[in-house]
Amino acid sequence: MGKLADLFGGNIADGVAKIISLFKVDPNLALQHQGELEKIQADLVTKQVDAAITEMNAASEIIKAEAQSQSWLPRNVRPLLLLLWGLAITFNACIPIIARFWLPNLQPFPLDPWVYKLTAIGFTGYVTARTWEKVTDKE
């Protein structure tokens, strides 16, 4: 305990303030290097955008390859998963309402909000992609 008190000077708040003060940058020095910092930040943003575009292009190529497959499973796995996910959410909400006459204590499973958001994004993306396919189809 003595070493900890020596490190923090007896008061934890004073000790934390001392540690934080070690990491402060002189404002004059920060102003001198502001241009360099802005350039580094701009480069980082550019790299992040490039990485996101590369990832989206790779995902797009995978989806195109699945859609052009001769087998029924790769072509239909995404719609089937969305259908199953939507049915699971629907049954989770509807079954307790219907079954309340026989099992009055049956409650739906609590689902995180991200489940609903992800499902909405999936359905929206799929419907949009299919609509775009049909609109741009030349045949």
Give the uncertain stretches in residue-range form: none
Q: What string gives the helices and strands in order?
A: HHHHHH
The beta-strand count equals 0
| Helical fraction | over 70%
Strand content: under 5%
Give the CA-based shape.
flat
Give the radius of gyration.
28 Å
Give the CA-CA distance, first to last residue. 80 Å
The SS-based structural class is mainly alpha
Q: What is the averaged pLDDT score?
A: 77
SS field, number of helical segments: 6
**Main sheet record:** none
Q: If you had to describe this structure to a student in words, what would you say it looks like?
A:
With about 140 residues, this protein is mainly α. It has a domain at about 70-139. It has six helices and no strands. It has helices at about 1-10, 10-20, 25-30, 35-65, 70-100, 115-135. Helix 5 (about 70-100) packs across helix 6. The longest helix is centred in the middle third of the chain and has 34 residues, at about 35-65.
Write a concise synopsis of the structure shown.
This protein has 139 residues and is mainly α.
Structural key phrases:
79% helix, mainly alpha, 139 residues
Topology:
Layout: H1 2-8, H2 12-22, H3 27-32, H4 34-67, H5 72-99, H6 113-136
Helix pairs in contact: 5-6
